[in-house]
């Protein structure tokens, strides 16, 4: 009942809509849980018919819906709305939130994949998780005097990705004001990436590859990965001692140290994007660790985006200084990247071209100077106000087209993530560009 | 002396022989043998010898379930870490080990129980002895849970906890029969989440505080 009511009068602003959608889901779920809880503790109501299966079903679909739905909503919104403030909080909330795995299930996972117990593989092994990863949890272990981080994936996540996304689809159409076809264009990309994230064997291979290719960059630290102690659902790597960014900032680090960490982060991404053409596409604060002497430790290569050559060229042409590109060339890029299409009216084409030009010149600003101070909140406020203004514009709201190449989804997310981290660090960066853009 | 011992081991052998021959038969034919006579003949024992050990096929099936339970307990207790587990972890460990044992006999169980509707309404006869064994096990767990205050002792209701856990067991069994996910991962999730839920419901919760508060308001009126 509640669900239907909520859908009939969806509030207008997108942020409101997003938060309403979440609370509606929680309410429906809450009702069910309460309903079944009541039935379970009151035997006269139940006559032993405890509906364990129903309750368990709802319980599980609830916690899963929360993760994927939010993830999708948050990613789509980034592309259309350029990160309004309210979404930022959701971004952090949207990490897969499930109760931690019980130790017997950890034991079972070990038995399934290694045929032995955690205690037999390591000298010590913590019974409870020391950290939550996005779709798993981390235990700390030791063997022969060495410390390891052992990441264990929640079972059933890989199987549920596709069905989760199907569940989210109808909500996403309404939420994001897109038509089905346009949305599917992005959904496929999201599904592909989420499935990749559940493939731990691939993650080990990529982690080794990228960390080897970036080992020359100053002040970066990568853990070693141990394929012989890893499997489809388990990854073993070195334990990196250090602090998370937030904790580190609480220790009042000096400006030099902040700059050093920020620069390491920038150089790391510069090398990946422009030289390796594949990038760690999840610059979430939880994936970094800051070590004494100040080095930046990179953990978790779950989400890696490979950048196709033609997309790379078009996308980064846009950061040429002050768009010193010819109008014609720019138009071609806009078409190629799907910002503007033949389905648009002439009026729409003109409007969206101007909008994207404005966005690009603002977002590209850090690239245009030798140095850029990301501590400046004024710059970020300019981005937010522009995002709010554009997303409230009648022309923008009216258009049901999805805009931008599917490849842009994760690249945009990556850059938003980096900007955001650098802002948190308050770092001043020597910004670099590849030679062909100078 | 010696003579008796030989006889005894011989007896056990025939018992297990009947069990495994029966499983074999179901696996090959996808159904139960049509009569005890024919079955006894096919494994080259006299019909009366069959009746020395089991009264009917029902009894054999019951024996299979007993074996499943006993093996689960042995496997589980062989893990050193089991002794350090809390009540909830013990129950989880039981279910996980049990599904592993079930897996070894999946085809047999599918042949007999696939499409069997409503275990809750009419439990197959042969599960009775398994149920008794499980009940002893769960009573112990609930007792331990109460001692460590993981489980709340509630008037009237706490007597039904064992029944609730039995229903959960049957839910897991049926879920597992239908599970088609890789290496039955979904069943793992179902076990984990349903045990969490069961212990949350059996533990001290907001409902208890609410009742307590309501009682207070009522009495102090």
From TrEMBL, chain A:
Family annotation (PROSITE patterns): PROTEIN_KINASE_DOM
Gene3D superfamilies (alphabetical): Transferase(Phosphotransferase) domain 1 (1.10.510.10)
GO molecular function per UniProt: ATP binding; protein kinase activity
Membrane-crossing residue ranges in chain numbering: none
Family matches, as InterPro entries: ABC1_dom (IPR004147), ADCK3_dom (IPR034646), Kinase-like_dom_sf (IPR011009), Mito_struct-func_regulator (IPR051130), Prot_kinase_dom (IPR000719)
Highest taxon, organism lineage: Bacteria
Domain Protein kinase per the UniProt entry, residue ranges: 124-438
Protein name: ABC transporter
Organism: Anditalea andensis
From TrEMBL, chain B:
Superkingdom per UniProt: Bacteria
Domain spans labelled Tetracyclin repressor-like C-terminal: 90-217
Pfam families with a match to the protein in the record: TetR_C_23 (PF17931)
Record SUPFAM superfamilies: Homeodomain-like, Tetracyclin repressor-like, C-terminal domain
Spans through the membrane: none
Protein's name in the database: Tetracyclin repressor-like C-terminal domain-containing protein
């Amino acid at each position: 009942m509640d669900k239907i009511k909520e859908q009939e009068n969806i509030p207008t602003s997108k942020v409101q809509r997003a938060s309403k959608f979440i609370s509606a889901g929680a309410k429906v779920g809450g009702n069910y849980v309460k309903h079944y809880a009541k039935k379970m503790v009151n035997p006269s109501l139940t006559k032993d018919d405890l509906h364990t299966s129903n309750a368990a079903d709802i319980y599980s679909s609830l916690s899963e819906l929360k993760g994927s739905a939010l993830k999708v909503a948050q990613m789509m919104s980034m592309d259309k709305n350029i990160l309004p403030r309210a979404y930022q909080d959701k971004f952090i909330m949207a990490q897969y939130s499930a109760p931690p795995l019980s130790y017997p299930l950890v034991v079972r996972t070990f038995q399934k994949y290694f045929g032995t117990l955690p205690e037999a593989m390591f000298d010590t092994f913590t019974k409870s998780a020391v950290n939550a990863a996005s779709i798993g949890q981390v235990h700390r272990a030791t063997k022969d005097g060495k410390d390891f981080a052992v990441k264990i994936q929640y079972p059933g996540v890989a199987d549920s990705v596709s069905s989760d996304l199907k569940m989210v689809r109808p909500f996403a159409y309404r939420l994001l004001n897109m038509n089905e076809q346009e949305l599917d264009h992005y959904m496929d990309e999201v599904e592909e990436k989420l499935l990749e994230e559940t493939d731990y064997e691939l993650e080990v291979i990529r982690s080794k590859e990228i960390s080897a290719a970036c080992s020359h960059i100053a002040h970066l630290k990568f853990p070693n990965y141990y394929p012989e102690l890893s499997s489809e659902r388990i990854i073993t790597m070195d334990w990196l001692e250090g602090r998370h960014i937030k904790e580190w900032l609480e220790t009042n680090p000096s400006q030099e140290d902040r700059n050093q960490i920020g620069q390491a982060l920038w150089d790391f991404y510069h090398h990946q994007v422009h030289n390796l053409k594949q990038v760690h596409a999840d610059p979430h604060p939880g994936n970094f660790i800051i070590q004494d002497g100040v080095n930046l430790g990179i953990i978790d290569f779950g989400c890696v985006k490979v950048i196709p050559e033609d997309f790379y060229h078009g996308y980064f042409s846009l950061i040429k200084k002050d768009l010193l590109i010819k109008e014609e060339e720019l138009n071609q890029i806009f078409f190629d990247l799907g910002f503007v299409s033949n389905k648009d009216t002439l009026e729409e084409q003109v409007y969206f071209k101007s909008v994207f030009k404005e966005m690009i010149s603002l977002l590209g600003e850090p690239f245009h100077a030798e140095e850029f101070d990301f501590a400046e909140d004024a710059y970020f406020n300019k981005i937010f106000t522009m995002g709010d203004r554009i997303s409230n514009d009648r022309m923008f709201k009216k258009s049901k087209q999805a805009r931008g190449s599917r490849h842009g989804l994760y690249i945009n997310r990556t850059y938003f993530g980096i900007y955001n981290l650098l802002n948190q660090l308050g770092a001043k960066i020597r910004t670099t560009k590849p030679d062909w853009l100078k | 002396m010696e003579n008796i011992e030989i006889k005894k081991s011989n007896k056990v052998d025939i018992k297990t022989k009947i069990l495994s021959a029966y499983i074999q038969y179901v696996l090959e034919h996808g159904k139960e043998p049509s009569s005890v006579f024919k079955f006894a003949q096919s494994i080259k024992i006299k019909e009366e010898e069959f009746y020395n050990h089991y009264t009917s096929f029902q009894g054999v099936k019951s024996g299979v379930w007993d074996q499943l339970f006993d093996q689960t307990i042995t496997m589980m207790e062989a893990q050193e870490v089991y002794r350090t587990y809390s009540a909830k972890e013990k129950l989880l460990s039981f279910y996980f080990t049990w599904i592993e044992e079930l897996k070894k006999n999946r085809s047999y169980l599918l042949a007999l129980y696939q499409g069997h509707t409503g275990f809750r309404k009419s439990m197959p006869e042969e599960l009775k002895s398994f149920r008794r064994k499980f009940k002893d096990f769960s009573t112990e767990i609930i007792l331990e849970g109460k001692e460590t205050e993981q489980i709340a002792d509630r008037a009237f209701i706490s007597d039904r906890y064992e029944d609730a856990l039995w229903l959960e067991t049957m839910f897991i069994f049926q879920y597992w029969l239908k599970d088609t996910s890789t290496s039955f991962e979904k069943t793992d999730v179902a076990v984990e989440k349903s045990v969490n839920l069961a212990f949350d419901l059996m533990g001290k919760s907001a409902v208890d505080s609410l009742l307590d508060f309501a009682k207070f308001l009522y009495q102090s009126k």
